[in-house]
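Ex. 9. Protein: Tetratricopeptide repeat-containing protein.
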Amino acid sequence: MIISILIAVIVALLLIAIIVGIKSIKRKEEKKDVSVKIQKKGKSAILKEAEKKLAHDPHNIPSLETIGDIYYGEKDWEKVWNIYKTLYDISTAHPEIDIIKCALRMGIAAYGLGKNEDAVSALMLCIKKDPNNFDCNLFLGKALMKANTFDKAVYCFKKCKVIQPENNEVNMLLGTALYKAQKYRDCLPFLKRVLDENPGNKEVLFDMAVAMTECGMGDKALKVFMHLRPDPEYGPQACLEAGKMHERVKDFASAVKDYEISMRLPSVPEQIMLQIKYRLANTYIAMNDISKALTLLRQIQAAKPQYKDVDALVARYAELNQNKNLQTYLMSGTSDFVALCRKFIATYYKDSFVKVEDVQVASESVEIICEVETPKWEAKQMFRFYRTQNVIGDINVRDFHSKLRDTKCDNGVCISIGGFSDSAHKYIDGRPVDLIEKDELVKILKRINMFS
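Predicted structure tokens for Tetratricopeptide repeat-containing protein:
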């Protein structure tokens, strides 16, 4: 009895498998005939015929698949999405429906419509059933790129690379995904292959230069950036990157040229133009050309108020621009600064003879010991000039006073553009030390302007 029941069940299953197989064969034959029918009857006739059948039976599988094929070929993504979504939804009741094809085309249609989350969901369904499907991996990788999930996109494109090793689109996508994932060394071989086939691809060329910069190949990268400088699209950013590289090696003249080329290009994005003007202004400051720097900084102020530290720079350098000696005090080389300090001492003591005995240069200050003779008195004096704009504390002043005693100087003067702390002022009470801060310093520097 049990054996006969088992035999009956097996026979029934075999019959179902045969029926499904026959339907599947018919489906394949019908699919092969679609293109032939389209050629003979034309798309409009095929669509009308299929739509008539769907009017009577909305779930007519052959008609839905025929229309789906036509709209997919035309890239009418809205209709493709609706048709294959319908097919997918009824697939549990119709085992003859190709689930993989439905999920794939739903995903591609969603990607084409900009529905990125739907695209990822549909393509993930497809890839679970067919992990080595090239188109599924390709479009899933693209969708993941849009979602900024670059590591997962890299995985998809690597599978595509295994399936179609010579596909240059895959090289492009894989190289770009690795670049976006900041895997700069890994991306270079793929970007190079793209350029080998298409040397005119400026986007890849620019990305490759950035990647080379990150990998320590600065010389090669700089050549690429300089090559791209005249390009209307990538030129502004290339000029900016070249300028940064020239600044780093203190080749300020070349940096100025990079930035000036960019400013002459048409249609420079506002954000890049602001960066270029800001960096060019700072380059001019490094070159002690305060006037040109201020012109650019004021242009930035007008275009974008409160951009970075521009307001502070304008306030600082507008004053410097009016007092060349103040510029020298803060920005000049050591020899010019020491020469200014000597003039300061001579101006500080009117109608006197100053004989410099010793000059010592430190990282942020210059110290001068001198003999001063006037008609009424003579003394050994020590001056310490601080270039930093930070507030000087009592520790520094205590050190100065200690050295004053060691060198047997009669009096000492500390000068700072940044001022002195309250504790420093308290410390000098009753001691032979004077503190000169910014306002008095600027006055004396202006007097040097008058007499030098």
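Check your answer against this statement. Confidence is low (pLDDT under 50) at residues 23-27, 30-34.
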